[in-house]
Amino acid sequence: MSANNISISQILKEAPKNWGRWGAEDELGAVNYLDQIQVLRGIASVQSGRVFTLGCPIARKEGDPVWPGRSQPGHHMTQDHGTYCCGKLQPLGAGLEYADDVIYMAVQGSTQFDALGHVWYDDQVYNGFDANTTIDGMEKCSIMPIAEHGVVGRGILLDVARFKGKKNLDKGEEITLEDLLATAKAQGVTIEKRDILLIRTGWLSVFYNQGSSAFYEGDFNEPGLTYTPELVQWFYDMEIPAFGTDTIANEQTVSCRTGTALPLHGALLRNLGVSFNEINWLEDLAEDCANDNQYTFLYAAAPLKIVQGTGAPVNPVVIK
Amino acid sequence: MSANNISISQILKEAPKNWGRWGAEDELGAVNYLDQIQVLRGIASVQSGRVFTLGCPIARKEGDPVWPGRSQPGHHMTQDHGTYCCGKLQPLGAGLEYADDVIYMAVQGSTQFDALGHVWYDDQVYNGFDANTTIDGMEKCSIMPIAEHGVVGRGILLDVARFKGKKNLDKGEEITLEDLLATAKAQGVTIEKRDILLIRTGWLSVFYNQGSSAFYEGDFNEPGLTYTPELVQWFYDMEIPAFGTDTIANEQTVSCRTGTALPLHGALLRNLGVSFNEINWLEDLAEDCANDNQYTFLYAAAPLKIVQGTGAPVNPVVIK
Amino acid sequence: MSANNISISQILKEAPKNWGRWGAEDELGAVNYLDQIQVLRGIASVQSGRVFTLGCPIARKEGDPVWPGRSQPGHHMTQDHGTYCCGKLQPLGAGLEYADDVIYMAVQGSTQFDALGHVWYDDQVYNGFDANTTIDGMEKCSIMPIAEHGVVGRGILLDVARFKGKKNLDKGEEITLEDLLATAKAQGVTIEKRDILLIRTGWLSVFYNQGSSAFYEGDFNEPGLTYTPELVQWFYDMEIPAFGTDTIANEQTVSCRTGTALPLHGALLRNLGVSFNEINWLEDLAEDCANDNQYTFLYAAAPLKIVQGTGAPVNPVVIK
Amino acid sequence: MSANNISISQILKEAPKNWGRWGAEDELGAVNYLDQIQVLRGIASVQSGRVFTLGCPIARKEGDPVWPGRSQPGHHMTQDHGTYCCGKLQPLGAGLEYADDVIYMAVQGSTQFDALGHVWYDDQVYNGFDANTTIDGMEKCSIMPIAEHGVVGRGILLDVARFKGKKNLDKGEEITLEDLLATAKAQGVTIEKRDILLIRTGWLSVFYNQGSSAFYEGDFNEPGLTYTPELVQWFYDMEIPAFGTDTIANEQTVSCRTGTALPLHGALLRNLGVSFNEINWLEDLAEDCANDNQYTFLYAAAPLKIVQGTGAPVNPVVIK
């Protein structure tokens, strides 16, 4: 991961901000745009009633696709049929028995929503709260406001990989604003204000189909959007509340534009309060959309309400 | 918790079963009833676009309402602003910093769905799979089929506490089939086949408002439904796919009818494959329904895809 | 827990310090006193070769005696005979099978050594290192120097409870310097310079024999030593390297002298670098010493080498 | 890891057993040999009072040397100076502040003792207890008897790597009984009955010095002892209570003699009840012994008392 010496602060000096738009105490950000009208717009886009769940499996024996450095999860049974068989536990009563378990995981180790305060610079998180509020738990801009509000609206899939004629984008490949618009056009669909974008790179399928070595080899650099003033201005003007992808970080790991790491977490998450829904399984939805040419749907997702969490796991529901 | 000597096997000897209804290999159970028609029926019940999320907060400092014996969760930051301030971590590049965390929790320690194999008797889980399949992980009837399918359909709130004129039902108070039907009638709503029931007891608010002592004092015995042949027959005939409550176990802890513990986990979960969505926060939804008299809505919930899990946390979305 | 307005800083203004005694970079503190001569002195006190292990059981079903607020441990099997029986795992080869497990615990949740940096005031830990070095891990004065050095020397049991004619000291009961000296005298033993003190209150047996309610009821206030200028001066002059008790904090929770919490963690741990070995099981050792009147022995303890730990579990060995 | 079709049961058909030697209910095994005489023999071997602690660091950022498949540990601060600085916690009183932490780890993920029941075949663990006793926790032959007894006696270092003129033995290299005896002879020391053996391969230093790739590359196959009838007979006749090495499994991963995995866990741990102390850091001790030619010492180790544990972490103390 290479980075030059320009600070993100300088890069984003002129970039738009939504701080104060929803009040000085707001911690919800662009998800504020998802009002009842947007929910109804999402409802209206439902046609056949086919349901897709976008969550990835958690705690697979083969491992989960985590950001380098994050822990793999541990899932452990605390009791099961064996416990009764060997007499260590008596049935609940009348012969009823049950299995139980615990899990230990990185909160962001699977399909998730970031909290708006998850990433920051210049000692300020979204809406100007002091970054010290992140110490020992997210006192401001945790995942809670998003988890309590829910993220419900009209979703639109932009299958960039398919548009570019590939099974999956290459490592580090850029998706430009033009790519998004061209993909929509080719799909015969129009991105509308306040849409929830789902952008497919196909990258996650490399992990599941080719294995963890192929996914992590060399310098870790995911394909995806990255910072340009035009892209950020477009997100701002289009009032995009949230977007999801099938990558871990929703953007190029190292921006081919700025040469720095993850600038959109600065420009979109921190400055505009756009919600990031990462590590989605989009393959089944994308195949279905390619078949029936319907690329819009109800998107209904609510991450877990982890108190003071920097994010939370989620299993988003898409209804076509 | 008192229990007599009758086995659940004997009690449920004549009770209906859905084993084989969806094939010998089925692990999804009554959620199979939630086909596209049901999804559209749920969509059709949306009126204003108001959203409610039913999940409870996870890892509160004051503690979470867990079943006696289950662990309280542990939420720990792995890095935050403090880590950068004291120089232990260098920013990502260009000055970008982030917070991260892990969680350790009982899989069923908060708002959740049970796996169909979570509880069994006579060495068989739902659909007759051997209970040995639960050893060291749920090989059959884990939460995965439910998590992958999603639980989407028309939901209906039956606010039994309000119907009975109470803030919350008393400890161990029974809800009969008659109570359910009378509540619906008083609410001016009809329970229809394949509805997803949400039953409010108000019991969970005792934990949050009065504290953990009030909730756990004496013998632990939650209010709720319990086994009668009529109730189970009704669930069977009405093809109820899933039901949720604001209690930990969705039924009386010790049945005032059978004198045994949790018989509905045998009669409904195991035998009919009905999904149990437990520990929901229903207070806000119930207040809203009391105000506008709309008791039906789209219910869209997808628990996390915990591989071989006995259940999984979920934050259900309700759209009125 | 009541506390008045005096700062610990003021209380300990004139109290002795060992900062700089072993150099500006020292993180080992008074355990530095345990040189080869002390080890040999410990060896020389061995008479019969009888061994006692002072560790408490970890992860008992009934719970462990943790400081209020710390987590109870979770011990989970990851595989066992059941996993093989149901075919989920194949034997290692040639029919060999094995059981394995994980543990989740508060590092200080059982018999332990504190790191010298575990507690501080005025933003400085032992030897003047900035308290910021504790952020996200103990960069200075972690448990590592103690764990690597080992704590080996002549130990001496001061069975204050027995001296005072009680099964256990009362909640919040004080042990004065005079009590220590009188106990030694009654035991016919002389406390010598650089002895490792083991002080028995009997308090921990309340937890194991009477249960957790008896142990935690009311305001939590353990019996034990507390701050007086004389006691601290004596620890300083006697060059006590370490001391252990059968309480969680090794001192009165709220000092009956200063009215503040845990002043000896300031005066002894932070200022003198004396090692604290807490939550020891002393009942068996004490009974044996009462029988044969031998109160001195080899004490050999080495806490786990938890990198950047605020302390670590230990199972101390005593050889009489 | 290759293995042929012979069962360990057949291989060890004629091998000696200690079952019943210390009674039908014994769970302590050969550590029973470490009576007071042995403790005194250990005491008598102390010369200079120099102390070595053999534990490895736990939860290093760079990772710990765990058996393939076991989890890496997670060490997390629950509070530190940062928590006070940002006002999220008030000092204990009078200005006292403290840091605290938790750890999540494989019980056998660092320097440890195996429980005697950790590995078995033919559905029986040490002393003939049914392997079902391992389900959901070690009901028999857990680490507790060893942890309570302590492992104290005369220790002897056999620095096989140095004897063979290597920095470390090669991957999969065998240590024969002849190697042990020749090493002792070259060191000018005699192995005596009931000695606790410490055998150095140098293998662990490959992990710490060359990194995890060098340690794990290719088929995992540690150097070490392996099964021959002569070696096992010698352990039996010499009444060896325990032995430790600087490898994870204390023996060749795949035996070059039997072609099966870990046969000595069958022949020594299960059949003779010999205690296995694995993953020791022996480099510093070995260097010291090479310098002063003293290869015998007091060995005093007590693993943590993890209830029903398959083993427990330990930081053994060696006193020369």
From TrEMBL, chains A, B, C, D:
It comes from the Bacteria. InterPro entries: KFase/CYL, KFase_sf. This is Cyclase family protein.
